[in-house]
Amino acid sequence: MTKVSMTVNGKAASGDAEGRTLLSSFLREELGFTGTHVGCDTSQCGACVVHVNGVAVKSCTMLAVEAEGAEVATIEGQAAPDGTLNTIQQAFQDHHGLQCGFCTPGMVMSTAALLKENPKPSEQEIREYLEGNICRCTGYHNIVKAIMAASGQDVSAIAAE
Amino acid sequence: MPKDTGIGASPKRREDVRFLTGTGNYTDDINLNGQAYVHFLRSDMAHARINSIDTAAASAMPGVVRIFTGADFEGVGGIPCGWQITDKHGEAMQEPAHPVLAQGKARYVGDAIAAVVADTAEQARDAAEAIELDMEELPAVIDMKAAVQEGATKVHDDLTSNLCYDWGFVEENKPAVEEAFANAAHVTTLELVNNRLVANPMEPRVAVGDFNRATGDSTLYTTSQNPHVIRLLMGAFVLGIPEHKLRVIAPDVGGGFGTKIFHYAEEAFCTFAAKALNRAVKWTSSRSEAFISDAHGRDHVSTIQLALDADNNFTALRTDTYANMGAYLSTFAPSVPTWLHGTLMAGNYKTPLIYVNVKAVFTNTVPVDAYRGAGRPEATYQLERVIDKAARELGVDPVALRRQNFITEFPYATPVAVEYDTGDYNATMDKLEEIADISGFAARRAASEAKGKVRGLGVNCYIEACGIAPSNLVGQLGARAGLYESATVRVNATGGLVVMTGSHSHGQGHETSFPQVIAEMIGIDESMVEIVHGDTANTPMGMGTYGSRSLAVGGSAMVRATEKIIAKAKKIAAHILEASDADIELKDGQFSVAGTDKSLAWGDVTLAAYVPHNYPLEDIEPGLEETAFYDPANFTYPSGAYACEVELDPETGKVSIERFAAADDFGNVVNPMIVEGQVHGGIGQGIGQALLEAAVYNDEGQLLSASYMDYAMPRADDLPFYQVDHSCQTPCTHNPLGVKGCGEAGAIGSPPAVVNAVVDALQSMGKDITHVDMPLSPARVWSAMHE
Amino acid sequence: MYNFDVEKPTSIADAVAALASDDEAQALGGGQTLIPTLKQRLASPSKLVSLSGVAEMQGVSTDGGVVSIGGATPHGVVAAEVAQSYPALAALAGNIGDPAVRNRGTIGGSLANNDPAACYPAAALASGATIVTNGREIAADDYFDGLFTTVLEEGEIVTQVRLPVPEAANYQKFVQPASRFALVGVFVAKFADGVRVAVTGASEDGVFRWSEAEAALSANFSADALDGLSVAADGMMADIHGSKAYRAHLIGVLTKRAVAAAA
């Protein structure tokens, strides 16, 4: 066991990890950030996406010890301290961009990374960017719409509004 | 103007806030003090005799608490099957024992042979690798038709063959059907495969068993769509625990799609082991494990024939299907290819004579059971594909052929034993033609051709049967359960309500939509209503959520209970207002006496119920809490028409979905936003089945598509925006809300639309291709083009 | 996963020493392939030597018509950094895996692993790259040695990849629908002295150069020059996503498309 320390959502956090402990397990089981989910074991589904030092990573495909000293952002740190949802979260709720909620943390974190790189992505850019985030519930329609709305685009013309 | 509250409004989902902030409570988020972890050692052979299991070395590994094998479960019940089919000879289906851990033989890759409980999950897995297994590989039966050949290796030695049942429906119709075929002007025949799928809710299954030695109570936390069903099946049939000593909790559940209906051995194991070890035991499935332990779906091989007269009227239909059961009977497996499939073969059409044969077959594969739609997609796919093929053979417009044969008068009794109460199939087809802009297709086809692509259009209809019921009928059909739903409505003293429902939400948004109904009935704000579900300790016995039944059955139970509440509240109001019960009206949360200005607020009456000072104690009890069990009189029959436009790359065979439109009739709609979301998701899964997904076994019974590296899940860039509409509404006549159910429609209606569109594209290239089996992968389409 | 120790050296020398000190040690690039492999317990290293902290293996530079990429540079960085200098390579790097994978996966890790369906081997081979290790420089033509095999020795690390920038180039990737790896990928690179065509995803022997196409395109760099040329289905991979014949066919289609896009 090694002691691993990092900053999670702006607060210092530390715990014990083996060499093999994944960042996702460390966050969930050692630090109690259970909002980060694990939906596959081949680095495909993206339910586990968090930000490490400002970039999106799949926390199930990164060792906890590799995040030593890093700034980690998870879904738990996205809303304001008073609970107000951030723009992306609010857009997902407004546009019914989630159903069972299991993929949602990864979707929100990937969206945050996308909008940082590309503040007004086109529909096609959004769909391509979400290649590593699988949702089984929504057929993606309302996720894509929510992301367009979160980036300030008019979604009123999109089908089934 | 859309409503902003009550039935027909689309309030934002209240459950979203916890899901969006990482504060949901999924089963894997639950950790109990001192819990141990189990790892299941699963067979890597499809069929093998277990000669011996030596756990000595493994037991000595670090952290190991105990290793269980089949021997530990001798005398413990097996996993029960919840539906018995009677075959065409009047005999009961063959029903093999289904042990919690394999006894003597492993029968599929993934069959659990031993269970290692250890202090950590990794220690359990480490020790599982140290178990010395002496296994003798046996020939595996994978192909269904080969499995029922004389002399085929048997999956279960104690059964007479691999045939679970040979079902004929309606057997008495068979001679008349044959005669109609003999007299037909045209017969269209189609052989097709309904591809085997893995449901793949994004949350893998998890079970945590707990035991309290002081009270003797067992608790199971599990990823289930129906905790009461699990409690009954596991308590009564497997472990012998009476319900009052067993609590099953299904907290936030990350998608189900059918595969979380069933009672699984892992649930029984964790509950059993927690008691045996006096310690909580947790199992978390990996995705890889899910592929070989979650029940799969579909997997039918069918031949369908449609007979038409000289005027292109459908005169008869017959279909022969082989349905894969896998190695054991999962909870509702036998019902899927029979009552959920045969009864739907009439579709939207007035075909007078229908005969359905289904042979259910055991193979050395993962058990197969209900997956979104369950039987109805298989029926719809066959029917809508054969109609399309018939139209092409006859040189008529496929939509016109459908319209000509639509059922137009309701109620309509089909020749396959069901009675459609309402529907308007021309209306949904009209709506579809409008929203899909069918008339603009020719121009879009020309535009595609101009860039070297080929465009195709596929249209089809579907009918669904939701909310299977009534219980006495399904009992006659072999169900070993009732199919009612329950609700307890508890009104608190200050007027807020809690609804304890037997329905279970795992993405459907009941916490938002159910309060809309109550708010509408009483005339109060939705925020005054809270929904409790998913815990057998605080909800009445209910059957859970599947088969698009929650609002139609569970919602109806809630309405009935609320009606009782209102009736009692009116009595209280009448007493206080010194009026007759019959003169009390409830509107906008106010009780008033008809024709007077006397009124009383909702909260005054609820307070009186719990502080019964001025109260008719001689006539009614204090308190305001009512329970209702609702057992529907009939199924509900949503229907609709779907259209898909594809673009095909002739050089690579790659198909892309360019447009998709769905016009559904769900009867009345409580929350349009949620309904549309359900349709979107169903379409996504249906397109997945049509283009991408397949659970493929090799001849040795190894699952070749056993992870997301080979099982193609639909991703955002595989799918378009969908045009959906539910404005055609023929309300259900026999439930109080007039609702029909919307959860499965998208998955039922969309696969034939996609395949019809691809065949249309191929034919427009001059290819004489009448069918390509799903999934229409680039390789498969290209191969079809070059055969 | 089996357990292992993790070392995080900060220099190539320390990394090499860490690997040399233990027969069972293995280098860890971004881990995007290795970690899933470890999860399946298909490998049991005693120690992983993480290369992500080795600063001298990070980054991209362009000099004299050659793009040099540090072995530990993630795909996402490559995609951004060579967008101007080598757009075809940028497009390839920007379409490996998904954005989160591209933030971790590295060029050195990809080339060391040599997955037969990976994209980078096609770029390296078509570009006539030099694979630089801690001990030597290896021409791409000599580097790849079949499925998941290269000429790298135990403990040898890909520290840098130098890719000559072609006059024109394009990569066409036809994705396997599930994994999104290349079912077939074709990289066409036109240099002053000839055209190189490298194919990934298709062959039982891993990435390879399609010499007939190279000859035809060197004479006439147009899609039409490929008319009549085809790759034999024999020797191609076959799986549930595509037959040998289908893969062979795709090579022809994608090569034409790459030429058309590059020309």
Q: What does this entry look like structurally?
A:
- The complex is a heterotrimer of chains A (161), B (787) and C (263).
- Chain A folds into two domains: 2-77, Ubiquitin-like (UB roll); 87-150, [2Fe-2S]-binding domain (DNA polymerase, domain 1, Orthogonal Bundle).
- Chain A is built from five helices and five strands.
- Chain A has helices at residues 23-30, 87-94, 104-117, 123-129, 141-150; strands spanning 2-8, 11-17, 49-52, 55-58, 71-73.
- In chain A, strands 2-1-5-3-4 form a five-stranded mixed β-sheet, sandwiched between helices.
- In chain A, a hairpin with a 2-residue loop joins strand 3 (49-52) and strand 4.
- The model of chain A has no long low-confidence stretch (mean pLDDT 96).
- Chain B is of the alpha+beta class and 787 residues long.
- Chain B folds into three domains: 16-22 and 484-630, Aldehyde Oxidoreductase, domain 4 (2-Layer Sandwich), CATH 3.30.365; 31-138 and 205-284, Aldehyde oxidase/xanthine dehydrogenase, a/b hammerhead (Aldehyde Oxidoreductase, domain 3), CATH 3.90.1170.50; 296-394 and 404-468 and 634-785, Aldehyde Oxidoreductase, domain 4 (2-Layer Sandwich), CATH 3.30.365.
- Helices cover 27% and strands 23% of the residues of chain B.
- In chain B, the strands form eight sheets. Chain B has a seven-stranded mixed β-sheet, sandwiched between helices. In chain B, strands 7-17-16-15-8 form a five-stranded mixed β-sheet, with helices on both faces.
- In chain B, helix 9 packs parallel to helix 18, helix 15 (550-577) crosses helix 16 and helix 17 packs across helix 18.
- The longest helix of chain B has 28 residues, at 550-577.
- Chain C is α+β, with helices and mostly antiparallel strands and 263 residues long.
- Helices cover 30% and strands 23% of the residues of chain C.
- Chain C has helices spanning 12-20, 34-39, 75-81, 87-93, 99-102, 107-113, 120-127, 140-143, 211-219, 244-262; strands at 5-7, 25-28, 47-50, 60-63, 66-70, 130-133, 137-139, 158-164, 168-175, 182-191, 194-200, 208-209.
- In chain C, strands 4-5-8-6-7 form a five-stranded antiparallel β-sheet. A four-stranded antiparallel β-sheet of chain C has the order 9-10-11-12, sandwiched between helices.
- The longest helix of chain C has 19 residues, at 244-262.
- Chain C is globular.
- The mean pLDDT of chain C is 97.
- Chains A and B meet through helix 2, helix 3, helix 4 and helix 5 of A and helix 1, helix 17 and strand 30 of B.
